[in-house]
Write a structure and sequence with these properties.
3 helices, flat, mainly alpha, about 130 residues
Length: about 130
Amino acid sequence: MRKLTKLAHLATAATAASIMASGAHAQVKDVAGVSGKVGDQLIALGSLAGIVAFLAGFVFGIMGFMKLKANASNPNDPSNKVSTGFILIFVGAALIAVPTVMGVGVGSIFGDTNNNTTLTKDGGGFTAIK
């Protein structure tokens, strides 16, 4: 029990130290720098959501096939329904498709360019949505 508590304290200290150390890189001088950093973080967050959805889709698909195999091995077990296996496979396929759907949706709404607004120092601020 003491080793577990000591390990938890060590993990907490390491996490706090890494958070404090990375804060120095996030310092900016003006609002444009802040918006640039926030934009970079949101792009990274969207990429992470796509990766997590893709991997979770594989996990759900494998679980669905395992459920179908368990039903084939023991069809009298009420916990191994065929419908549950097909539902898990369908959810897995939908999760695997999420990154593609997100990319197509953003591209069709905002266009294929990265600059969707005109916010430049020389352009006089927000002028138009492209």
